[in-house]
Specification:
- There is one protein chain.
- A hairpin with a 2-residue loop joins strand 3 and strand 4.
- This protein has helices spanning 31-39, 73-76; strands at 18-23, 46-52, 60-64, 67-71, 79-83.
- It is an alpha+beta fold and 84 residues long.
Length: 84
Amino acid sequence: MSEPLPSSLAHAPAGLALTVQQVSAPAHSPEWATWLSDLGFLPGEAVRVMRRARLSDGNLVVRVGQSTFALRHAEANCIAVTPR
């Protein structure tokens, strides 16, 4: 049986090639959507989790395009992805 597909970047396994589908933001921080888009998390863009913290809700190191960023779990949860 295969693993379920990740619905957000926060739940994606490290190393899996993904495509950004949508960026949204929580009601308490609507500016996150603009900030993430400014970083390059745009629909259609290639993204990959490079490394994740041991804790399931810890920080992630992600690569989008040619840039690498550290994101908090809550921020990564705003980025909807599908496998490439």
